[in-house]
Amino acid sequence: KRIYVINGPNLNRLGLREPDVYGHETLADLEKFIQMKGKLHSCEVHCFQSNSEGQIIDWIHEAGEKNASMIINPGAYTHYSYAIRDAIASVSVPVMEVHISNVHARESFRHHSVTAAVAKGQIVGLGFKGYELALLALLEGETE
Ligand code: DQA
């Protein structure tokens, strides 16, 4: 089982960026955490991060071609990128959307996700744990 973990814009600033909202742990900590969870469930986890919409779209296409399920946190693109939404809709592999913060408790522009409707599910507000739960959801999907 192969899983792509794709983090979008500004998530390379985890740990430095608004620590009251996103915590003190870094992107490297997050990637180490999810790699470790992957190993525990004997799956291959590949981590990616980009601040560019086009790069994220290319990785979504690649995941589709390599038959990798995806965990994606599109950052602010979540709220307005129809291009990322269409990229997810264009592949047949399952995608779980994750947000570290509880977007519903924040500014109203964060309440809507244009990408969630084409995802298998969405997990918000649980910090890094959300990525682990998304991984479990994708692994369970295997036996469906
Ligand atoms: C985020 C929530 C988004 O609204 C924000 O733009 C981010 C991070 C989260 O993980 O909580 O960059 O996706």
TrEMBL record:
One of its GO terms (biological process) is quinate catabolic process. PROSITE patterns: DEHYDROQUINASE_II. Gene3D superfamilies: Dehydroquinase, class II. The record marks R17 as: Transition state stabilizer. Pfam families: DHquinase_II. It catalyses: 3-dehydroquinate = 3-dehydroshikimate + H2O. InterPro entries: DHquinase_II, DHquinase_II_CS, DHquinase_II_sf. Substrate binds at N73, H79, D86, I100, S101, R110. GO terms for molecular function: 3-dehydroquinate dehydratase activity. Its EC number is 4.2.1.10. SUPFAM superfamilies: Type II 3-dehydroquinate dehydratase. PANTHER family: CATABOLIC 3-DEHYDROQUINASE (PTHR21272:SF3). Belongs to the type-II 3-dehydroquinase family. Homododecamer. This is 3-dehydroquinate dehydratase. The gene is aroQ.
